[in-house]
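Run folding on both entries below.
>entry_1
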Amino acid sequence: MPTSAPKDCPLCFPVGETLLWHDASCRVIRVDDADYPGYCRLIWNEHVAEMSDLTPTEQRHCFNILMAVEVALRECFRPEKINLASFGNVVPHLHWHLIPRYLDDRHFPQPIWGQAQRKDGGSPAPDVDDARLALAIRNAIAEHLAG
């Protein structure tokens, strides 16, 4: 159920986001994390806390965008795994983390918020700039929504 946005919600009032794609319902941003290149976040624009706060049509739209972004990340970064996470424990505003993972990244096989397994990450992920990633996301969303 939508609530009014608290003035301190960093997802309602973002600063310095790297926006890759958006529509009237949600946006996809790139998270600046040197250890996890390609890390993106899908953020629902309306201030809601849970997927079940959305209508079934909105849920399908959010899930379709989430799946399309995963496809684009796999295409661009060729990771061993993609982690999808939606917590909202710290920021109770519906958002999904999409994180390309590699066998030799700092935390693998643990979640990136867990204890590091090695001091540095291993072999670097492909270098993909924001424009290329944004184009891959747009193309994947268009293809995914076309069915």
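>entry_2
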Amino acid sequence: MKLTKYGHACVRLEKDSRALVIDPGMIMPDPAALAGAEAVLVTHEHWDHFDADRLRAAAEEKPDLVIYTCEAVARKLPRLAERVQVVRDGDVVKAAGFEVAVVGERHHVSHPDVPPVGNVGFLVDGEVFHPGDALTVVDAPTLLVPGQAPWMTVPDLIGVLRTMRPRRAFAVHDGLLNEWGLKVLDGVLESERDGLGADIRRLPVGGTVDL
């Protein structure tokens, strides 16, 4: 399996000449992420993870594209209703040749006065877990861990890494950081890499790893 980060929380997974994409939101700068993809997984409705216009354009280019997502996102794509499959915690689906297990139900708490929106995480082939905007604990060798968000702290980041203890953790969700913020994030990841003895680092935009 080949994993490529296309910006912020968006990654593309490729295997056997087939591809799926997770969370191609508005911060993702490169539309090539969706080129030829057979499936798109969207964790939740926030703009940095979900871009309705981008998905509609991708669906026009590839008539057999299927979108797997939560109910709230599905409601925002009425013109693509026949292409959208609503998934919930506990579901397992086949998407672009991958087995995708759905884990989680809600976004991490962002505001004391606002109930969290729906958020589904995706465990792909039992190998790669993309939690969306949540700190869901899953037994997965490879974790795409949120590197920064208004709803999380450095202790949150360290806590989920030490609880899950994945063999590999690649920080995503870093599109709001400037160069100084990225340096801080890299320092935290380096410290946890040394402490946990795992491959823990931030993937740059365009960065690729083979799993």
